[in-house]
Inverse folding.
């Protein structure tokens, strides 16, 4: 996506809420579970390294999933998820730090805090194994620099997933020292999803970065397509949450097998 392109009203609202949301007064000290090790275990077990997302709702989905987050997370892990993503953004996604705490206590895989962090003090709201930093959000907000936030997160023990939507943003993430880069297939202007986004951006990432494809991955064929394009791992939300979570997780983490859904 062109950095000069206007972002969608829903995205603008998320960014505004993130700007207004406070942080915490103390500083967390995290002993993180390794995402790289979790991905390696999945590969050895014949599974696609996948971060599955516990997502009650979002601006791009209809309705709300009212299942118990711990039960959902446990089912995901039992059926192949290498790691989990848990929403802590309350206004637009129905998440909370308390939900993340409950999930992280119940599982033994890495847990990503999915939120829209703009300031260093927002890192201290809750312990997680990874935090998400979005290049475009930091640019739009004009708040803390990506380099500074990555350093601040690592000082606390977090691993960092840096999300990008274009080659320029990927290059900015790599230049800032990101070890995990997520390429989001959903553009921030029209909120359309196009898997060609990942395919066009992936060549900009070197071999020393773990590359994760995000958004729009709905079928085993999509999984195979993203892997063929160079994805080391995937982040999948709605396609897991919509329907039978256990069956969906198994089908998308072992896409060469036949599953009843």
């Amino acid at each position: 996506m062109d950095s000069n392109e206007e972002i969608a009203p829903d995205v603008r609202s998320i960014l505004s809420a993130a700007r207004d949301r406070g942080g915490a007064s103390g500083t967390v000290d995290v002993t993180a579970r390794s995402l790289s090790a979790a991905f390696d275990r999945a590969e050895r077990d014949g599974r696609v390294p996948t971060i599955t997302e516990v997502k009650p709702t979002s601006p791009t989905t209809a309705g709300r999933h009212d299942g118990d987050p711990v039960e959902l997370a446990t089912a995901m892990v039992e059926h192949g998820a290498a790691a989990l993503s848990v929403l802590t953004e309350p206004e637009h996604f129905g998440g909370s730090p308390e939900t993340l705490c409950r999930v992280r206590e119940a599982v033994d895989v890495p847990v990503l805090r999915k939120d829209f962090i703009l300031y260093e003090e927002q890192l201290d709201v809750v312990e997680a194994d990874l935090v998400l930093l979005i290049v475009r959000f930091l640019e739009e907000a004009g708040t803390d620099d990506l380099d500074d936030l990555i350093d601040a997160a690592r000082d606390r023990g977090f691993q960092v997933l840096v999300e990008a939507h274009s080659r320029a943003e990927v290059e900015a993430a790599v230049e800032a020292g990101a070890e995990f880069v997520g390429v989001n297939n959903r553009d921030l202007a029209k909120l359309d999803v196009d898997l060609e986004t990942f395919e066009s951006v992936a060549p900009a990432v070197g071999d020393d970065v773990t590359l994760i494809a995000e958004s729009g991955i709905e079928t085993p064929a999509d999984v195979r397509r993203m892997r063929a394009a160079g994805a080391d791992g995937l982040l999948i939300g709605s396609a897991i949450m919509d329907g039978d979570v256990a069956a969906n997780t198994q089908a998308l983490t072992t896409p060469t097998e036949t599953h009843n859904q």
Summary: Strands lie at 50-54, 83-87, 111-114, 130-134, 159-164, 180-184, 210-214, 233-236.
